[in-house]
Amino acid sequence: xxxxxxxxxxxxxxxxxxxxxxxxxxxxxxxxxxxxxxxxxxxxxxxxxxxxxxxxxxxxxxxxxxxxxxxxxxxxxxxxxxxxxxxxxxxxxxxxxxxxxxxxxxxxxxxxxxxxxxxxxxxxxxxxxxxxxxxxxxxxxxxxxxxxxxxxxxxxxxxxxxxxxxxxxxxxxxxxxxxxxxxxxxxxxxxxxxxxxxxxxxxxxxxxxxxxxxxxxxxxxxxxxxxxxxxxxxxxxxxxxxxxxxxxxxxxxxxxxxxxxxxxxxxxxxxxxxxxxxxxxxxxxxxxxxxxxxxxxxxxxxxxxxxxxxxxxxxxxxxxxxxxxxxxxxxxxxxxxxxxxxxxxxxxxxxxxxxxxxxxxxxxxxxxxxxxxxxxxxxxxxxxxxxxxxxxxxxxxxxxxxxxxxxxxxxxxxxxxxxxxxxxxxxxxxxxxxxxxxxxxxxxxxxxxxxxxxxxxxxxxxxxxxxxxxxxxxxxxxxxxxxxxxxxxxxxxxxxxxxxxxxxxxxxxxxxxxxxxxxxxxxxxxxxxxxxxxxxxxxxxxxxxxxxxxxxxxxxxxxxxxxx
Length: 564
Hints:
Layout lengths: L1 H4 L4 H16 L6 H27 L3 E4 L9 H4 L13 E4 L2 H10 L3 H11 L4 H21 L5 H6 L7 H37 L12 H12 L4 H4 L5 H16 L1 E5 L11 E7 L6 E8 L11 E6 L2 E2 L5 E2 L2 E5 L16 H19 L19 H6 L6 H6 L12 H10 L4 H18 L7 H13 L26 H20 L4 H12 L7 H9 L6 H6 L11
Parallel strand pairs: 5-9
Antiparallel strand pairs: 1-2, 3-4, 4-5, 6-9, 7-8
Helix pairs in contact: 3-7, 5-10, 9-10, 9-17, 17-18, 20-21
């Protein structure tokens, strides 16, 4: 097959090269003994993944606090946790589950309470899961070296946009350098907030920011400077207005026409079906999509796009047109007179997932292997992340919103606050993402790793704040077990390049510019995975991508610094 591939070009050669690479990555070129080793390693890695996640799911640690220890927490948080039948009467039981832990870290003004919970949260499963994570890193390294790679990171990244670990490390070092000044400025403000709270609430100020302080002072910062009344805001996002505006935006940008199919086959009366054709006189069929937006019993309970049928071009010239379903669980209408009202986050999710629908429908590839969003994994979210920007821009936001009672637009002051809120705590949040991504690369670049020590060292090196003694955050870092091993950087990677696509083209040429939209469709959506993602990006941007637009979008670099 490899010999045949040498005589092919374009998409056919890419397909053969990919199939050969996948075979080698599974050890098909090795002798029987080595293949058995690979098989044994894969089996054990699967067992580790199951055990690791089960341990996380079974974790049930709780703590008891007095009301004074939970100062700052609202009554609607406290009341359900007051011990009545179990536990110590008069105390409040707080678990390490997300609905308990994160509200306390954000709102409780008692540092010692936050410290106790943070230490517990980042010690979850450490006795059982830390050895499992270290064993998995060791086994991954063994598999990588058997297959001829320097380490697991290089193995994991071979078929990604990044290609190898050196590219990822250079990307993370570059972001670290550019994010750290903003991080330090934000940290100084946090120290000032801590001094104010120490004086107000009577606790000792040690002049340091600890791991248990970050979420609290990020919340203080957001409330002081970026407070948005989201309950008021959602009155401007009734479902029918949002859907109409969203479909209008995508039709304008991508030169498409959506037509409701009223008698089409659907799996529930609330599901709607649409036919998609080229805009203009030719009316050429593009595909079909379904919208399944509201919750019901036994339904998939997240938001996602499902490809029902990929585009296919057969040897006899016949075409299989693509079809996709966007499934979500947005808040339903409240009878008798309130329609379904979306939060701003819901609208952002809608734009994102519908972007995947458009990727599925607009791709035109020779082979289904590359159809739709079957691109490199570290690029798969970038096209949809780019389309999220329309919910943050006043001009496009106006198309997505009208008050459900009187049809009025969102007040300018509220829009300004909303747009500004995107930049809250950008230095700290994104530097933490860099830190987690770097740790992921570190433990997957060597034969043996001490995950507790490695994590503490990376925390100190990148954030200047050490991990809390006695903790082991990686023991509950499920991403590293559940398919993101050596690939956690992908969250930042795709966000950086989605920002570059938006600001460098739509930001300059117009957020609803149809010619820019046509270029986006041609360069980014239409090729599917048949072309290397870096080539697609470079073609769309007219230059290699960089981090400048991302930093501008986060308020970490002035607009005029954007690279041309």
